[in-house]
Structure formats: C-alpha cells, structure tokens
C-alpha cells in the first residue's frame, strides 16, 4: 500500500468517525427530547422558555427572546403552546396596551420541579472544568462544523447553557438584589 493510499484511508476513517460522532450527539439530543415529551409533555425548548419565564416571574416576549436568543416568531409559537397547556399566562400591560407580560402558572412550577434535568446540565459541568484553551478550541471547531453544514444562520437557543430548570432560592435572591 502506498503512502498516499494510507493517508486516504486515514482521512476516510477520521471523516467517518466525525460523522458518527455528530450522529451520536444528534441521537442523544433527540432521545432526551422524546423522553421529555413522553414523560413530561414538554420539549427541551419549551422547558427552557418556561424555566426562563419562572426565573423572571414576569417578562415580555421581546425580553424573553433576547434572554434565550430566539426570534419573536419562535418565542411566540412556543409561548402559544405553553399557554394552551395552561403553563403560561399573558397579561396586557396596564401602562402600554401593546405590551403583554408573560408569567408562569403554579402548574408550570410543579411540572418543572418534577422534570428531569436538561441534557446540557451534565455537559456544562464537564465543559466548565476544561481549560480555557480547550473550551475555545471546541467552540472554534463547532463553529466550523455549523458553517460546513450550512447551519450558521439557524435560529437556536443556548440549550446547552448552564443552570437548573428552577433556580435555587439563593440564586433568586442574588438576582433580585442586582435589580
């Protein structure tokens, strides 16, 4: 076997391993999402949006979109589904009739208290333990992959962000004192 054939075989093996690893990541996310829907009636994005609404107590759709990095249209659709499930309420602002405040219902808090942790929580714990240079290298590689897959402009929430679905009381108190 020539040196060129060996390099070609190695490149094929590396490429196939990268593709299989991407597929494993996609499957893990899909399986966890199916589990959430089947056992708790929420998708991952719905859980993140609902958690953010609970963390803020009341928030506008525009503020929510900025906090979770999703467009108004995406937020609107998710909030409508959460509202139809009785998990979110919309209330018209008393001072600006064009504005609606979103708040979570007691049923939403109970649901999230009983939901499993989101998939990203274990990832975040491990990621945060990596040295800065490894975190930056991972980001660079993932940005390149997103570009290669034509996904750089796709609307996406930071579902791999840190934090529990419901913050602990200390976190809420610290956030309140910042405001």
From TrEMBL:
Domain HTH marR-type: 15-147
Acidic residues bias spans: 166-179
InterPro entries hit by this protein: HTH_MarR-typ, MarR/SlyA-like, Tscrpt_reg_MarR-type_CS, WH-like_DNA-bd_sf, WH_DNA-bd_sf
PROSITE patterns registered for this protein in UniProt: HTH_MARR_1 (PS01117), HTH_MARR_2 (PS50995)
Pfam family, one: MarR_2
Keywords: DNA-binding, Transcription, Transcription regulation
Region (Disordered): 160-179
Domain of life: Bacteria
GO molecular function, one term: DNA binding
PANTHER family: MARR FAMILY REGULATORY PROTEIN (PTHR33164:SF89), TRANSCRIPTIONAL REGULATOR, MARR FAMILY (PTHR33164)
Protein name per UniProt: Putative TrmB family transcriptional regulator
Organism of provenance: Magnetofaba australis IT-1
């Amino acid at each position: 076997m020539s040196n060129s054939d060996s390099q070609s075989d190695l490149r094929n093996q590396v490429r196939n391993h990268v593709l299989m690893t991407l597929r494993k990541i996609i499957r893990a996310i899909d399986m966890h999402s199916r589990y959430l829907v089947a056992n708790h009636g929420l998708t991952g994005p719905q859980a993140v949006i609902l958690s953010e609404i609970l963390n803020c107590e009341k928030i506008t759709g525009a503020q929510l979109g900025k906090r979770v990095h999703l467009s108004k249209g995406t937020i609107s659709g998710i909030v409508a589904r959460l509202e139809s499930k009785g998990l979110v309420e919309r209330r018209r602002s008393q001072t600006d009739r064009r504005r609606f405040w979103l708040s979570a219902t007691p049923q939403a808090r109970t649901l999230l208290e009983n939901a499993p942790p989101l998939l990203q929580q274990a990832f975040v714990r491990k990621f945060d333990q990596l040295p800065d240079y490894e975190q930056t290298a991972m980001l660079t590689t993932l940005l390149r992959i997103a570009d290669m897959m034509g996904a750089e402009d796709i609307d996406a929430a930071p579902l791999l962000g840190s934090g529990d679905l419901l913050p602990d009381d200390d976190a809420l108190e610290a956030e309140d004192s910042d405001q």
